[in-house]
Amino acid sequence: MTVADETRVATHSPRSADTEVTLDVRGLRMRYGQVDVLDGVDLTARRGEVVALLGPNGVGKTTTIEILEGFRMRSAGEVSVLGVDPAHGDEDWRSRLGIVLQSWRDHGKWKVGELLAHMGGYYQPHSTPLRPRPRDVTELLARVGLSEHAEKRVNSLSGGQRRRLDVAIGIVGRPELLFLDEPTAGFDPEARREFHDVVHNLADFEDTTILLSTHDLDEAEKLADRILILAGGRIVAEGSPDELARRVSRESEVHWSIDGERYVHATSDVTGFVRGLFAEYGDDVADLDIRRATLEDTYMTLVQRHESGEADDIDTTSFEEE
Amino acid sequence: MNPRVHAIRLALRRGWIEFRQSFTSPQDLWNYFGFSLVFLFVLMFQRPFLDGADMPGIAGTSLSYLAVTVPGVVAMLLVTGSVLSTAQFLTAEREDGTLLRAKAMPRGMTGYMGGKVLCVSAMTLLSMLVFLVPSILVFDGLPSGDTSGLLVLLWSVPLGILATMPLGAILGSLLPSPRAAMGVTVLPLMVVCLISGVFFPIDVMPEAVQVLAQVFPVYWLAMSMRSAFLPDALASVEIGESWRHLEAAGVLGAWAVAGLLIAPFVLRRMARRESGAVVEQRRHKAMQRVA
């Protein structure tokens, strides 16, 4: 687990630009009556990339994902999902997608293994040598940790188990592109870690592109190669977790004390400031601590601005440059 | 592999799995067989008073008034089963997300709808048998023993299901919840059954009501059932004093054609509107209702 996490951190940089683009959205708009829920969303994802759509509840994450899934018509914009406009996607196109829904009690009377086998059946005519469909049910159950529940009825599963079954159904057709809408809502930490392993494996070993929506920053940080922050109907910030944290605030806080008295100074040139500090006070400088703005700071600032109704005034330029 | 044939095979499997599951759920069993059991109980309760060797038969036969109502109730069970169950399942499974799940799969809707039609048809037939078999055992002279009756069953029962199930699908698509489906459907259905001569001969009704009743499938289905189970002498109490099979096939056929033309359109429109957000909203509402 820890090893997997470390290799993951190393690959957080965006992949080479010539990799196949599986998801391409430009100027996506969604208008309900007089309100623009989505006001010009742009996003792309390449093969094998994990992209997180991060934002507070009710900001339009689900709407965005449902437009891409072909479940909802958009008001305007260009959308290409696996090279196809989802408004005109056929059954063959659908067979290449995996969708993890926010379910609650469907198929309650079905046995876990039975349901998974039945759902897999729909993908059988779409099997290719490169992507044999569907997946083996026994293997898949083991992968999501439901082996011993195969004979149980779906309505006897716990919330977390049910969610893992949703994920299993989402990937039973070995999708090229997987949509995860708030995938780990209701997971305990253990289940969450196992789920993260499943996602990493899909992206790393099967080249599955994954678009997940979440309001949980920690989750986005752990899972995603790239995070898109959605606020005010637009993507207001985009980048790897590290990039985002660095972009948001170029200033860091330097804390130190001299003779027991504490000082704080904010600066964008930490190295220069600290060099000056030592040149002046030398050995008297104690308790030196440099705090760089974390991704959480970034995110919280954005969300607060959005929620206090200043969404339109967000200075996006500070995120787009560099 | 032909994807369409494959989807039909999946629908068959789905229908079979759901059919088996129905027997493990008391709720489902009651939904399907509740009416059968209630009417069976009413029939058996009345029998000591209305049926017996000392009672006069109807139209010169040995059959009592009570025995003669049996075929009509069988027809009614067919209609309630195929309209109510279909409407209820569609609304309930829209609410719980089953339909959305089907929509997310390639040809999932074909599998879902096909499976549902098979399962509901099979359970509706069973609900008719649950009422019919004990009735036949109890009443002498039912059925009349005519083989032509079997032939009538062979075309009228499937045609009756085809004429009524699309109606259930249309109602299930238009109504917002299983509660609404029950509330809106049951009463009109009962009224139609009442004026269609299911419980008593239609000739006690005013002429205008008789004409109206003949617009709906229930009267024709009930008449076909009577012709299948009762001796031909009883045709004399029907409108036109004969078993009007041609007219029955015509009216039921017209309902079937109209239903099969409209239902796919309404179903497709309903399915198109399904999305996670909509299911989530409905879930929220249902939860509030529970709380």
From TrEMBL, chain A:
**Which regions span the lipid bilayer?**
none
List keywords of the entry alphabetically: Antibiotic resistance, ATP-binding, Nucleotide-binding, Transport
| Predominant localisation class | membrane
The domain of life for this entry's organism is Bacteria
What SUPFAM superfamilies does the entry give? P-loop containing nucleoside triphosphate hydrolases
Under InterPro entries, the record lists: AAA+_ATPase, ABC_transporter-like_ATP-bd, ABC_transporter-like_CS, ABC_transporter_ATP-binding, P-loop_NTPase
Q: How does it sit in the membrane?
A: Peripheral membrane protein
Q: Which Pfam families match?
A: ABC_tran
Enumerate the subcellular locations listed in this protein's record, separating them with semicolons: Cell membrane
Named from the GO MF annotations, one term is: ATP binding
Q: Which ranges carry the ABC transporter domain?
A: 23-257
Record's keyword annotation contains ATP-binding: yes
Record protein name field: ABC transporter ATP-binding protein
TrEMBL record, chain B:
Q: How does it sit in the membrane?
A: Multi-pass membrane protein
Q: What is its main location?
A: membrane
The organism's lineage is:
Bacteria, Bacillati, Actinomycetota, Actinomycetes, Streptosporangiales
Domain ABC transmembrane type-2 as annotated: residue spans? 31-270
Which family is this protein grouped under?
Answer: Belongs to the ABC-2 integral membrane protein family.
Q: What is this protein called?
A: Transport permease protein
Cite the Pfam families for this sequence: ABC2_membrane_3 (PF12698)
- Say if the entry is tagged with keyword Membrane: yes
User: What are the transmembrane regions?
Assistant: 29-45, 65-92, 113-139, 151-175, 182-202, 248-267
What InterPro entries is this protein classified in?
ABC2_TM (IPR013525), ABC2_TM_bact-type (IPR047817), ABC_2_transport (IPR000412), Nod_factor_ABC_transporter (IPR051784)
User: Any idea which UniProt keywords this protein has?
Assistant: Antibiotic resistance, Cell membrane, Membrane, Transmembrane, Transmembrane helix, Transport
> Where does this protein reside within or beyond the cell?
Cell membrane; Membrane
Note the PANTHER family from the entry.
Answer: ABC-TYPE MULTIDRUG TRANSPORT SYSTEM, PERMEASE COMPONENT (PTHR43229:SF3), NODULATION PROTEIN J (PTHR43229)
According to the lineage, what is the superkingdom? Answer: Bacteria
Can you name the source organism? Salinactinospora qingdaonensis
